[in-house]
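Changelog entry

Holo records now carry the ligand SMILES as an explicit input line rather than a separate metadata file. Below, a converted record for flavin-adenine dinucleotide, shown in the new format.
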Amino acid sequence: MIETTVKGKIVIAGAGVTGLMAALRIKQLDPGAEIVIFDKADRPGGMYQSIEYPGGRVFDHGMHVIYESCNPVVDDLYREVMDEQDWHIYENNEKDIAGLFFRGRLQDYSHYVDLRSFNEAEKKQFLGDFMLNLEADSVDSGRSARQLLLSQFGNEIVEAVHRPLVQALYGMSVEEADRFVVKATALERVILFNPDTMLDLMQSGKIRSRLAFPDQLNLPPYRTNDQKALYPRRFGMKHFIERLEGAVRQQGVEILTNIASLTLHCPSNRVNSVTIAGKNGDSKEVATSTLLWTIGWPGMAHALGVDMSGISMTRGPKVVYANLVFDKPPEMGRLYYIYCYDPGFAAFRVTNYTNYCPAASVDGFPVCVELWPSRLGLEASQLPDEQCLALVMDELRRMGIITDSHKLEFSAIENKGGEFPLPSLANTAGIREIKKRVLDKGVNNIEVAGIMADDDLFFIPDILNHAFSVIEKTFTDENRK
Ligand SMILES: Cc1cc2nc3c(=O)[nH]c(=O)nc-3n(C[C@H](O)[C@H](O)[C@H](O)COP(=O)(O)OP(=O)(O)OC[C@H]3O[C@@H](n4cnc5c(N)ncnc54)[C@H](O)[C@@H]3O)c2cc1C
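Structure line, unchanged by the conversion:
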C-alpha cells in the first residue's frame, strides 16, 4: 500500500549516531521541521548500538566510546540527551588509555609503535635519517600514506616499520595506501626515546608531532584542546542510543526501521519524494523537501541511478567480533584497549570494557576481540565459530592478555559481515569520482554526511562536526525556501 504523507519532509537516510544527532540539530534550528529517518536495521544506533544476549548480557561493537567534537553545539547535545551524572567523563591522560602489541611485546604505556627494541645499529640508522629528514618536511604529500610517513620519519623507519605493518594489517603495500591509514591506525608518531629525553625534546613542535612520549599516563599537558571522552555509567553504548532515540522521537521525528529498499522520485533537479519499502512488504511515499544521506556516496549514487562504469572499489577487511567473559580481569593493566599490528595475528583490537566502565564487570570481565580473518588469509564467512574461538583464545594467550588460569565464562562470535573500509589510494579516488558523478547530476536538495562523506571522515567527532556544518548551511540558508 502506498501512502502519501504531507508535502516537504526532511528525510534522513540512516539512523546511526549521525542521523539521530542530525535530526536533533535540525529541530534546534527549525523546531517546525517535519523529519522522517529510515534505517535497514531493526533498531537505530548503527555501529554504536550494543549487541544483547539472552540473560541481559551486553557488548558493544568492539571499542566505542564517544570522543567530544570540541564544538559546543555537538558536545552540549550529548549532555542534553543524557544527564552529566549518567556519563563517565574522562579527560586529559585518562581520555584514551590505549596500548599495542608490537614486535612480540604488549606495550601498556602507549599505542604508538616503540622502536626502542630494535638493535643499536638499526636505531642509529633510524635516528640519523629521522633527524636529517626534519629539514625536508615541506613537500605536499597529497593523499599518499607513504609520502606522509616519509615526511614524518624518513625512509629508514618507513621501510623497516611501516611497510611491513601496512602490509600485515591491510594486505596492501604502503605505496597503495591512502594517508587515512596513518590516522586510522595511529601511525603519526613513533617512540624513539625514554621519558627524560623526550621531556626535553618535546619543547620542539616538529619533534612533538612525530615522536610520542612513552608514558601516556604521565604525558605533560601539551594538548591543544580539552576534548573529553564519554561513556555511559551503565554498561553498553545502547544506554546512550536509547536516550538519543527517545529524544529524537520526543521531537516528533518518525523513525522507520527494517527498511528493505528506497526509491527516489527525482524527475528533474530535485528529489520530490522517496518511497520507503519495509521488509514486511509495506511501503510509504514521503514528499521530500531535503534528503540528508548519512550512508555513503556509493549508496547515494546507486539510489540516483548514477552510471558507475569504470569505478571499482576494493572491499575492506571483514570484521568478526569475539565477545568473551572471563572469571578474572585480562592482563591489560589500566588499558581500555590495545591494537595488534604483528603479522601472524587475526586480532586487530582487544577491548577491556571494565577499565572504562566498571559496571561492565558485574558477573565476570567482558573482553571483545575484533578480528580481521583476512590478516591470516582466512575468509570470515567460511570460519566456523569454534575455530574462531580457538584462534582468539590462542592469540590472547600469545599476547599475554590471558593465562591458562583464566576461565572463559561466556563466548559469542559475531560474524555478520561488517567491514572496515579499506584505506587505499584507489578507493579514495573511487569515492571522489562517485561524489563527482553524483554532484554532476545537479540534484539540489540532497546533502551527504557520515562516514567518508568528505576526505578523512571516519571518527565520530569529525563526522558530527561535518554533519552539523552541512546542516547549519542547509537549514539556515534563506534561499532554501
Ligand atoms: C569496524 C569499525 C570500527 C570502528 N572503530 C571506531 C572507533 O574505535 N572509534 C570511532 O570513533 N569510530 C570508529 N568507527 C567509526 C564509527 O563507527 C563511525 O564514526 C560511526 O559509526 C558513524 O556513525 P554513522 O551514524 O555515520 O554510521 P553508522 O554507525 O554506520 O550508522 C549507519 C546507519 O545506517 C544504516 N544503513 C546503512 N545502509 C543503509 C541502507 N542502504 N538503507 C538504510 N539504512 C542503512 C545502518 O543500519 C546504520 O544504522 C569504526 C567503524 C568500523 C566500521
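Spot-checked after migration. The chain has 13 helices and 21 strands. The chain has a mean pLDDT of 94.
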